[in-house]
Every structure is written in C-alpha cells, then in structure tokens.
Design a protein that fits this description.
- With 441 residues, the chain is α/β, with parallel strands linked by helices.
- It contains 14 helices and 21 strands.
- The protein folds into three domains: 131 residues, Methylthiotransferase, N-terminal domain (Rossmann fold, 3-Layer(aba) Sandwich), CATH 3.40.50; 232 residues, pyruvate-formate lyase- activating enzyme (Alpha-Beta Horseshoe), CATH 3.80.30; 55 residues, Beta Barrel (OB fold (Dihydrolipoamide Acetyltransferase, E2P)), CATH 2.40.50.
- Helices cover 34% and strands 24% of the residues.
- It binds S-adenosyl-L-homocysteine, iron/sulfur cluster and FE3-S4 cluster.
- Iron/sulfur cluster binds next to helix 7.
- S-adenosyl-L-homocysteine binds next to strand 15.
C-alpha cells in the first residue's frame, strides 16, 4: 500500500465551518489522506474560510501568501480554498492567487474526493454549486475512532432572513433542515464514540423544521427526542434569531434537563430605527420581552449575544439605545463587531459612519460587555457546578472543562476524569475562565 497522503486543514469562521472541516477531512480520508498538524508536512492544504467581515476574507489571501515558499520547495503540494470565501469569490480566488488548485463551496464538499483526484492529476477544480442533493448523504461511511467529549452537529444550514449587512444568505444559500431521524442517528453514533455533549448548529438553528417520522419537527421536538439518548448528557444549540424563538423552545429551557442554561440570541442593535434598517424585523422592546419570558422559564440562563456598531446611519442616540439595551438585558457573554461593508449586501450601498466614531463606540460597548461578563463569572465563585472535562490544562495535574453555563473551568483533577462530568466548587474568577476544586463524591 502506498504511504498515506497528508492533509492540513485550517478552519476560520463559525462552528459550522468546524463541523464542515471534520466532514471534509473524512471525505478526503477515503482518498487516502490523513490529517496532519502543520502545513509543512502536508501534500494538500485546505483553508476553510469565512466571508462575514472584510478582515476575515482578507486573512485568506495573506495566509495563502505564506504558503508560497512551501509550494516552491514542494511543487506537488496542492492548495485548496473551501467555505464561504470560496462560495463568494469563486474563480476570482484563482485569479488573485494562481497557486490555488481547488475551490470548493460549502454545499459541495461531498464532491471533494473527485476534485482531489483531478488536482492530483495536475488540473484545477472549482465547484460552487448549490446542488439539489444533500451533501451529508454522500459522505463516506467514516471509520469510527474515539473522539473528545463534545461535538458539533449541523442540523440546519443557510438563511432566508437577509439582514441588510450579512453575506450568509448568499454564501450558504437558502435555509434547509436535515431530516430528524438522520440527526438522531448521527447523535447516537457520536455518543458511541465518546461524546457527552452535542451542540446543534445552524445559521438560524431555531428555525429548524426537519422532516420527522410523524410530520415536521421543530427544534424543541428534536432536542427533546435527542435528550432520550442514553449517555448524551448535554445539549446546546447555536445560533438563533429572536423571531424564531417559539413557545415550545422557550418551554424546553425550563423542562428539558439536558438542555443547558445558555442561549446565544443576537440582537445586533438596541435602536428600533437601526433594527429596521438592518431588516431584523423586531423591535428592541420585543427582544427584551422575549428575554423576560425565556428567563421566566429558566431563571439562571446565561445569555450571550452579538452586536454590530457603526451600521450605516447609526447616530449617537442609536448607539446609546444599544448601551441601554445591554444594561437592561445583562449578558454573561457577547461578541461585538464594527460594521464591515460586504459587497452585494444592501447596506453596503449606504454611506458609512466615520470609522473613528465607530471605533470609539465599539470600545465603550466592549467595556460594558466585558464588565457584565466578569460580573456573571464572579457570581459563580462559591457555587457548585457540573464540569465536563475536555482536556489537560496548562498546569501539571490540571484538567479544563466547561460548566453548564459554558464557563471554562480549570481544576486539579486526575487524568481519568477527562471525558467525565464532575462536581466542582468554584473558588476563583479569572479574566476569561474560572477555577475550582473537585468535590469528593
Ligand atoms: N446567524 C447568526 C449570525 C451569523 S454571523 C445570527 O443571525 O445571529 C455572526 C455575527 O457576525 C452576526 O450576529 C453579526 O453580529 C456579525 N456580522 C455579520 N455580518 C457582519 C458585518 N457585515 N459586519 C460586522 N459584523 C457582522
Ligand atoms: Fe445573517 Fe441575519 Fe441570517 Fe443571521 S439571520 S445569518 S445575521 S442574514
Ligand atoms: Fe463565516 Fe460562513 Fe460561518 S461567512 S461565519 S464561515 S457561515
């Protein structure tokens, strides 16, 4: 048998890309590729890219530039670009960077094996279709190695919301839900391989409406059925849109024990005028009322969000409305971004906010969000929490895992607890993590 060919995959962007990278590595596994940790060792490099902000997309070209010496030293090295930049820019990538052999969009990675054979033969390959067939169905039956205790599982892809700033509806296409039974099977399979916690993924995950054995299932039904799987202890989902947060999903936060008390529910802005211009289709007040209802179902819920500052037309007053909303809601965790104009989106046509003003607003918002995050963490000190240990920590004898609220927790603990859930008393809150002591069972 010939020696395995070596594949290096680098992933940018959201969790969906993390999931897709695993699937692409499996697909190329059937072509004799084995994953390696550095580009220097590789026979094929695959960048799984993100197009969400200009910086994310530009990073791809600078990364490709860095591979030049590798390619000169090893002319047979194949270089591929996958994901959302591949979808958005297609052939343009090969024009800008002729070293690139292969461009594959997010919906066609099941065709990668054939594309890999084409480029190995010295050709170029490009596929950015939105095919009718389900890319997940065509994946090879993977070998089933043991894996870590947490996994992502894509249940829904694409988005029909068309927020005025966002490329996702163009790069990922229309909203599609995967059939429920297939997802349950995939979840059982993950559990057999050692997984204890599954995060259900979708660009608009709470809009999930997959075909079930007895009609259409929403996300709440899928979660409840998944919770029946023995050995699966924790379920999370991300990312949700406020307008798709239906009653049964809110109820599940209160009565489904395996559903973790954490919710990522982006609002983007606290100004009704800006929300309207963003095409978010709800008001700030409606969002706050929704949060109240979810917290009534699950009082200790840790809320996370996304914000954009400097959206075209944002005034000081609009920005202050965002600060007010943040103060009223209280986030345990959040991401905030300076608006980045994306070609092809409606907002990109409008005059931008002065970048210096946008920077200053972003700094103020981030300071407030950091303060809230820190307060939520500090409030955990002295409490007992369940931690799912994922890996060794930086210190000798230490393990790191996640609490139910998704806080990273460092604990002195024996190595055999890796992959297990243990009770921990939190003793200290650091800038981005907690530390605690094992409580003897
Ligand atoms: N589907 C998810 C988010 C996908 S993108 C949702 O609807 O919330 C993740 C985050 O990136 C968004 O929530 C938004 O805050 C940010 N984002 C998207 N487009 C952006 C842009 N053009 N400029 C700055 N931030 C952006
Ligand atoms: Fe983008 Fe809006 Fe869809 Fe989220 S809901 S992916 S922000 S268009
Ligand atoms: Fe980026 Fe595509 Fe995800 S643009 S955020 S990788 S869906």
């Amino acid at each position: 048998m010939s020696a395995p060919k070596k594949l290096y995959v680098k992933t940018y962007g959201c969790q969906m890309n993390v999931y897709d990278s695993e699937r692409m590595a499996e697909a190329l596994g059937s072509e004799g590729y084995e994953q390696v940790a550095t580009p220097e060792e590789a026979d094929m490099i695959l960048l799984n890219t993100c197009h969400i902000r200009e910086k994310a997309a530009e990073k791809v070209y600078s990364e490709l530039g860095r591979f030049k010496p590798l390619r000169e030293a090893k002319p047979d090295l194949k270089i591929g670009v996958a994901g959302c930049v591949a979808q958005a820019e297609g052939e343009e990538i090969m024009r800008r960077q002729p070293m690139v052999d292969l461009v594959v969009g997010p919906q066609t990675y099941h065709r990668l094996p054939a594309m890999a054979r084409a480029v190995e033969g010295g050709g170029k390959a490009l596929d950015t279709d939105f095919p009718e067939e389900d890319k997940f169905l065509h994946l090879p039956k993977a070998r089933k190695p043991k894996r870590g205790p947490t996994a992502f599982l894509t249940v829904q892809e694409g988005c029909d919301k068309f927020c005025a700033f966002c490329v996702v509806p163009y790069t990922r296409g229309a909203e599609v839900s995967r059939p429920a039974e297939r997802l349950l099977r995939e979840a059982r399979d993950l559990v057999e391989r050692g997984v204890r916690e599954v995060t259900l993924l979708g660009q608009n995950v709470n809009a999930y409406h997959g075909e079930g054995p007895d009609g259409e299932w929403g996300l709440a039904r899928l979660i409840r059925e998944m919770a029946l799987i023995d050995g699966l202890d924790r379920i999370r989902f991300t990312t949700s849109h406020p307008n798709d947060m239906e009653d049964d999903l809110i109820a599940a936060h209160g009565d489904c024990e395996k559903l973790m008390p954490y919710l990522h529910l982006p609002v983007q802005s606290g100004s009704d005028r800006i929300l309207k211009a963003m095409n978010r289709k709800h008001t700030a007040e409606a969002y706050i009322r929704l949060i109240d209802r979810i917290r009534a179902a699950r009082p200790d819920l840790l809320l996370s969000g996304d914000f954009i500052v400097g959206f075209p037309g944002e005034t000081d007053e609009d920005f202050e409305a965002t600060m007010d909303l943040v103060r009223r809601v209280g986030y345990g965790q959040a991401y905030s971004f300076k608006y980045s104009a994306r070609p092809g989106t409606p907002a990109a046509e409008k005059p931008p906010v002065d970048p210096a003003i946008a920077d200053a607003r972003l700094q103020r918002l981030q300071a407030l969000l950091t303060e809230q995050q820190r307060a939520a963490q500090d409030a955990m000190v002295g409490r007992e929490v369940d931690v799912l240990f994922e890996k060794a920590g930086r210190l000798e004898g230490q393990l790191v895992g996640k609490s139910e609220h998704l806080h990273a927790v460092h604990v002195q603990a024996p190595a055999h607890l890796k992959g297990e859930i243990a009770r921990v008393r939190i003793v200290e809150s650091q800038p981005n993590s907690l530390s605690g002591d094992l409580i003897d069972a």
